[in-house]
Specification:
heterodimer; A: alpha+beta; Helix Hairpins; Immunoglobulin-like; 3 domains; five-stranded mixed sheet; three-stranded mixed sheet; about 35% helix; B: mainly alpha; Cytochrome C Oxidase, Chain A
Chain lengths: ~350, ~575
């Protein structure tokens, strides 16, 4: 029941003047390759809340489109039919109004509003007040300037910027329930293909849920202005098959890997200020101001989704975070190039 | 048309302006003036100045966003620019220009010699002007002792706790809050003045049911202003208490509430939209009948719809907050209340079309802009209904769809009506017509630019592009759309420059207007252009809504019909 703008169904939304949207539907080539999936189209939903919203959206667009065609048509007719022609100077007949007509164009909109409201109310309650199944996964999402912290309280996992959740299906529903709050200012969690957005507000806990139907990568980003680098607070949601998710969970539950070959890097990490802000499980580093780095190398990106997670970018980032993200709250620690190499070598072992 | 021979009883020939005043004397006379017409012109000129400033900021924003990962503006500068663009357009352009029109036109249209409180009027203008200067002084003074920031960079909605001292050091946020408090007091003064003028200064025979629609709507707007500005001012004071006196209203680190700020801001912010748009309706209500050569259709329904919009608009504010985690019942309530506003608004659109129906439409520049206004306001209203659907709002809130929607209201409806009003009343204020040829260039370029820009802008919102971002990734598929949007912005900028040129050149070279260039029906057209300081030599007396129609058509006067 996922509305698609591919193939046959593309015709009727185009008739409603939505044709332009159709061009931006997920092309088949992108659907396969998650890394190329730049699509965040609210009309290619892949999770129940987003699907219900897109169905409602099509109804609302259709009604509003019909009203538009009617009224704009009326306006166009009036402009064409009653434009002044020639120079005759007599005034047209004066009409002051009509109560019957006023009544008609009051009552009809009232009826339209009632229909729209009832259709809307149904979706509000379905999305906002569902019965939470036993099998649901709980995740705590904490917004920071300018990154995301994800905590899985029942699994004992803490990670950042890349959320992993299991795929859900009608036979084996495994939705994910998110509790959202913020450590500093307001943020907003928005992955258009999975659900509408919900704000992360300090001193308050909000909730939302998703039940993704296709295992792949979904993109989103912070949707509430949160300061200088709001634009680079990107969000990646990996929807895993049950096996992938179990494996990911097992790996994340391990403490940070110890490797004597990178002892120098680890020593720098623990003696310079790195550990004041970052946690690496199983070491002395327990800071919470920055992302948890215990399994840094299991993530595809760094700095909240803005750069690929490789040694060059890591070194660049540690040397001066402002190069990649001007205004990021991580300070440049003034390490020498040798020290940076050692720290990068250490971080690269944190699989 | 343009019959200048119609004498309205009691009018005098224009007084010869005394020659020989030096430039300094002339400027001085503008500073000390308490004449409602001069203050009205000051408001309008002040607003047009800031329109150009905030427009320049918008152009910088659009250059930055024209392609992904652009480096035209620094992130911090971009954030200042969109904050200043929004704050300026709402508080230093929208509000003052509409109050400028009210100032200039209300006394003329109700047959009064001035506003009820001329000195309060001058005081209000200078407060507003000072507020604007204070806001822009932040570019120099905002660094404060901390050497941080310059202009405000917290968004025009300034959500807590981003405005707390922990997240906004320096003085930029203080300038923002103080500027809005100061200009807010100016606005309150003008609103009180307009209400008092309309209640107590109408000329003989002008009952409330015979008052033209422009004063009627300005009356409603002024009442609504008293309701909306108050919570804004209160919130700004609370914010300053938080920042300097150790308060914790919005300080979440100490148990304050970020959501309380949102409530205060939007209890101001949503009725504010109607404060801005109803004067635009008022302008259309005057211009459309004159250029359709017909009386307004459904006068009483128009008044009732305006009052109804004002009333309902007080209970819709939380539709800006569907994503902050309200209960499902609250979301349903604000969905319904927001949709209800659509009904009186729809009545207005139908009444304008009915006014044109059966008329003889003359598409001079003011009417072109008003026709464009109806079309664009229709679309703006419909996207508003879409956004009122709270589940859809969960997707579209804070996306470029919302930006496109409210620019449709603010530019497509309000700015279009402001242009219409300037073309329409410029002859009255200056005694000279604006160039029709340049006016048509202005209109067509502006409309084309508008649609290229803002029609396109809806799409990236649907594709997940949030607002307030200074750049975006190339793989998101938003690049082309943003480039087209920016091009539309540039076309509009060219149109506005043509308009500014037309304003200046017509003042010196425009053809003389005479008293009544549009063959119109309200009292301001019975007196010379520009009107003498005392407006009416003797108090006019009216017997219907269209006193000049009655004079021009003694065989078929309006007062024969029950009004």
């Amino acid at each position: 029941m996922i509305p698609s703008f591919k193939g046959k169904t593309a015709r009727w939304p185009r008739a409603l003047g939505l044709g332009i949207l159709a061009q931006f539907g997920p092309a088949p080539v992108f659907a396969k390759d998650a890394s190329l999936s730049g699509h965040m189209n609210i009309f290619s939903p892949s999770s129940t809340p987003a699907i219900q919203i897109s169905h409602l959206a099509i109804l609302v667009f259709a009604i509003c489109g019909a009203i538009f065609l009617f009224v704009a048509g009326l306006l166009g007719y009036v402009i064409f039919r009653y434009r002044a022609r020639g120079q005759e100077s007599a005034e047209p007949p004066q009409v002051y109004g009509s109560n019957q007509i006023e009544l008609a164009w009051t009552v009809i909109p009232v009826l339209i509003v009632i229909v729209l409201f009832l259709a809307t109310a149904r979706v509000i309650f379905a999305v906002q007040d569902p019965v939470k199944p036993q099998s649901a996964l709980d995740v705590m999402v904490i917004g920071h300037q300018f990154w995301w912290e994800f905590r899985y309280p029942k699994l004992g996992i803490v990670t950042a910027n890349e959320l992993h959740v299991p795929v859900s299906s009608s036979s084996h529903p495994s939705p994910t329930y998110l509790k959202l709050t913020s450590a500093d200012v307001d943020h907003s969690f928005w992955v258009p293909e999975l659900a509408g957005k919900t704000d992360l507000i300090p001193n308050r806990v909000n909730e939302m849920w998703i039940d993704p139907l296709n295992p792949r990568l979904y993109l989103g980003q912070c949707a509430q202005f949160c300061g200088v680098e709001h634009a680079k607070m990107l969000l990646r949601v990996y929807v895993d098959t049950p096996e992938q998710f179990a494996e990911w969970t097992r790996n994340q539950q391990q403490p940070g890997r110890r490797d004597s070959q990178v002892a120098l890097g680890r020593q720098i990490f623990e003696t310079e200020s790195c550990m004041n802000c970052h946690t690496i499980n199983g070491t002395a580093a327990t800071g919470r101001f920055g992302p948890d780095l215990t399994h840094l190398m299991s993530r595809a990106t760094i700095a909240s989704g803005i750069a690929a997670n490789n040694r060059a970018n890591l070194a660049n980032w540690i040397k001066n975070p402002d190069h990649l993200k001007k205004g990021s709250l991580m300070p440049a620690m003034q390490l020498s190039d040798d020290q940076i190499d050692a720290v990068v070598a250490y971080l690269s072992t944190l699989q | 048309m343009a019959d200048q021979s119609i004498p309205y009883p009691g009018t005098l020939a224009p007084v010869e302006t005394e020659g020989g005043a030096t430039l300094l004397e002339k400027l001085h006379s503008w500073v000390i003036t308490v004449d409602h017409k001069r203050l009205g012109i000051l408001y309008v000129v002040y607003s047009i100045f800031f329109l150009l400033v905030a427009g320049a900021e918008a152009i910088c924003i659009r250059i930055q966003l024209a392609r992904p990962n652009n480096h035209f503006l620094d992130p911090a500068v971009f954030n200042r620019f969109f904050t200043m663009h929004g704050t300026t357009m709402v508080f230093l352009v929208g509000m003052p220009i509409l109050f400028g029109f009210a100032n200039y036109l209300v006394p003329l249209m109700i047959g009064a010699r001035d506003m009820a409180f001329p000195r309060l009027n001058a005081f209000s203008f200078w407060l507003t002007a000072f507020g604007g200067l204070l806001l822009y002084f932040s570019f120099i003074g905002g660094f404060g002792l901390y050497g941080m920031g310059s202009a405000p960079d917290v968004g025009w909605f300034a959500y807590a706790p981003l405005t707390a001292r922990a997240f906004s050091p320096g003085h930029s946020t203080d300038y923002w809050a103080l500027a809005l408090i100061v200009s807010g007091f100016g606005t309150l003064g003008t609103a009180i003045n307009i209400i008092a003028t309309i209640v107590s200064m109408r000329c003989k025979g002008m009952t409330l049911r015979r008052m033209p629609l422009l004063p009627w709507l300005m009356f409603v707007v002024s009442g609504l202003t008293l309701i909306t500005i108050t919570p804004l001012t209160a919130a700004q004071i609370m914010l300053l208490i938080d920042r300097y006196l150790g308060g914790h209203f919005f300080d979440t680190q100490a148990g304050g509430s970020a959501v309380v700020w949102m409530h205060f801001f939007w209890i101001f912010g949503h009725p504010e939209v109607y404060v801005l748009v109803m004067p635009a309706f008022a302008i259309a209500n005057e211009i459309i009948p004159v250029f359709s050569r017909k009386a307004i259709f459904g006068y009483s329904a128009m008044v009732a719809a305006s009052a109804c919009i004002a009333f309902v608009s007080i209970s819709v504010w939380a539709h800006h907050m569907f994503t902050v985690g309200m209960t499902s019942s609250s979301n349903a309530f604000f969905t319904l209340s927001t949709m209800l506003v659509g009904i009186p608004t729809g009545i207005k659109i139908f009444n304008w079309i009915a006014t044109m129906w059966g008329g003889k439409l003359c598409f001079a520049t003011p009417m072109l802009f008003c026709t464009g206004f109806i079309f664009q306001f229709l679309i703006a209203g419909l996207t508003g209904i879409m956004l009122a659907v709270s589940p859809l709002n969960w997707q579209l809130h804070n996306s470029y769809f919302v930006i496109a929607h409210f620019h449709y209201v603010l530019v497509g409806a309000i700015v279009m009506c402001i242009f219409a009003a300037i073309y329409y009343w410029y002859p009255k204020a200056t005694g000279r017509m604006m160039s029709e040829a340049l006016g048509k260039w202005h209109f067509w370029l502006f409309v084309i630019g508008f649609h290229v820009c803002f029609d396109t802008m809806h799409v990236p919102g649907v594709l997940g592009m949030p607002r307030s971002i200074y750049t975006y990734e190339a793989d998101r598929g938003w690049g082309t759309l943003n480039l087209v949007t920016s091009l539309g912005g540039f076309i509009q900028a060219i149109a506005v420059l043509i308009f500014a040129y037309n304003l200046i050149v017509s003042y010196f070279r425009g053809k003389p207007a005479g008293n009544d260039p549009w063959d119109a029906w309200t009292l301001e057209w019975s007196i010379p252009s520009p009107p003498p300081e005392y407006n009416f030599a003797t108090e006019p007396e009216v017997r219907s809504r269209r006193p000049l129609w009655d004079l021009k058509h003694p065989e078929d006067p309006d007062w024969r019909y029950d009004q």
